[in-house]
Amino acid sequence: MAYIVSVETANPPYCIDPQATIDFIEQLFGVHHDDISRLLKVVQNGEILNRHISAPIEWFQYDRSFQEKNDRYIEVAVELGIQAIRKCVDSIPKASLEHDAAFTFENIDAIFFVSSTGIATPTIDARIMNRLSFAANIKRIPIWGLGCAGGVAGISRAYEYCKAYPVANVLVLCIELCSLTFQRNDFSKSNLIGTSLFADGAACALIAGEQSVLLAEHKLVVPKQFSDKSNKRQYLEIVNVSSTFMKDSEDVMGWELKDNGLNVLFSKDIPTVIRNWLGPNIEKFLYNNMLSFNDITYFIAHPGGKKVLQAYRDSLNLQEHMTELSRSVLQDYGNMSSPTVLFVLERHMKTSTPSAGDKGLMLALGPGFSSEVLLFAY
């Protein structure tokens, strides 16, 4: 057993609106596509209102080497990671431990770092540890290459870690700087769609094992012990997790690593794949937990795009309101890959008013092709 105690997020300071995106795409792609007007309508219909990127938009109008983009990835990722971690740890009440001691970085036992949009060895979490006062013997578990599925996968692996070490407090840090993978001289429709969809962000979640000092003596009250309905701090019990892999599907989504860096691989058939494949997998997962779709109150899904959200509803027979939080995050931030589902989770934890016994699913899909699913309860 483990609990999601806190989720906090961070974004780089450069924000672009739909008109800036359209102007940028028309300038770079217009002479290479006779149907640019139709393609720009696809961008407009994506309903993304704002996105954050890791450099001023003018920075992307010039050729950048793989090294230059990756150097910026390291610089920005470290700063965003520090922001997200500080917000997550600072959100814990100061009287969380025995003798009213404050919860600090030294109380963290392990950190799972999730990313797929840059390369660093030592990894970003190690560089952050040189800036924050983590204990020297903290466990570091970097996870690379899961793309959009990485957020749910990271929390799932932290849950499994807490099952093995029930006293543990674990951070899951997801950072993706998708804008830095932009290829200025790639005029494919996949790159055009990616340019209109992907964005940058970071998210940090704190997972506590059932014997964590955070939960001891009710210093942090877990959901089933809520008595004061005005208490907005809600802690989610992770009930079970599941990973499912689709064979021979490497060409559905991912990166192609070339001399100029990471090049997006993005199949137009993703919504169709979701409709045909996802439903039976989720149904089996719920059945194995003695549940059905009728038992699920909340659906925390990675919003891969407008069509992906519709494919979720079609495949799982969901009412539209079940994907409303995911849709609102997509509108406000775009698709940030792995952190995006944690942005949805943060919004859920800060705005929902659950009842004891309510259950929910977290879901994200990623390269492989694969799904990561997490069942939670209040």
Secondary-structure map with pairings?
Elements: E1 2-10, E2 14-16, H1 18-29, H2 36-45, E3 51-53, H3 66-90, E4 110-115, H4 124-129, E5 139-144, H5 150-164, E6 169-177, H6 189-197, E7 200-209, E8 236-245, E9 253-258, E10 261-266, H7 270-288, E11 298-301, H8 306-316, H9 324-333, H10 340-351, E12 359-366, E13 370-377
Parallel strand pairs: 4-5, 4-6, 11-12
Antiparallel strand pairs: 1-7, 1-8, 2-3, 6-7, 8-13, 9-10, 12-13
Helix pairs in contact: 1-2, 7-8, 9-10
* CATH level-four homologous superfamily name of the largest domain: Thiolase/Chalcone synthase
The backbone outline, from C-alpha atoms, is: globular
Low-confidence parts, pLDDT < 50 over ≥5 residues? 221-232
Strand pairing plus helix content: what structural class? alpha+beta
Structural description of this entry:
The protein has 378 residues and is α+β, with helices and mostly antiparallel strands. It has 2 domains: 2-218, 3-Layer(aba) Sandwich (Peroxisomal Thiolase, Chain A, domain 1); 239-377, 3-Layer(aba) Sandwich (Peroxisomal Thiolase, Chain A, domain 1). It contains 10 helices and 13 strands. The protein has helices at 18-29, 36-45, 66-90, 124-129, 150-164, 189-197, 270-288, 306-316, 324-333, 340-351, and strands at 2-10, 14-16, 51-53, 110-115, 139-144, 169-177, 200-209, 236-245, 253-258, 261-266, 298-301, 359-366, 370-377. The strands form 3 sheets. A 9-stranded mixed sheet has the order 5-4-6-7-1-8-13-12-11. α1 (18-29) runs antiparallel to α2 (36-45), α7 (270-288) packs across α8 (306-316) and α9 (324-333) crosses α10. The longest helix is centred in the N-terminal third of the chain and has 25 residues, at 66-90. The radius of gyration is 20 Å and the shape is globular. The two termini are 13 Å apart. 45% of the residues are buried. Residues 221-232 have low confidence and may be disordered.
